[in-house]
Design a protein that fits this description.
By secondary structure, the protein is mostly helical. Helices cover 72% and strands 0% of the residues.
């Protein structure tokens, strides 16, 4: 029962964070994505969005950190490949098993 409640809370938090993001409330989105990451460090979506928010705020080191983490968690994620190919992430920060590395 507890796991089901945690999953439902996680889904709700993701919806809230995505709503903030779509509305342009990046501070609210960032706060909620950070909460999600603290509760579930393996959530690649939150890491990717934190990277994107940092990129939009021109916090390139933070963007690189979060996007690198997101790629480690989900190397096949197409949106993350775009950042890697545009040079935000260096090949050394991407796992060798990632399809991103294989196609560069």
């Amino acid at each position: 029962m507890e796991a089901g409640r945690e999953q439902e809370n996680h889904r709700r938090d993701l919806e809230i964070a995505h709503s903030h993001f779509r509305a342009g409330d990046f501070a609210g989105a960032e706060k909620t994505y950070l909460k999600i990451r603290n509760e579930d460090p393996k959530d690649h979506r939150a890491a990717a969005r934190l990277g994107y928010i940092a990129l939009l705020a021109n916090r390139l080191e933070d963007a690189q950190k979060w996007l690198t983490e997101a790629i480690k968690l989900k190397p096949e994620e197409a949106a993350l490949k775009i950042f890697a190919r545009r040079g935000l992430l260096s090949p050394g920060q991407i796992p060798a098993s990632s399809p991103v590395v294989a196609r560069q």
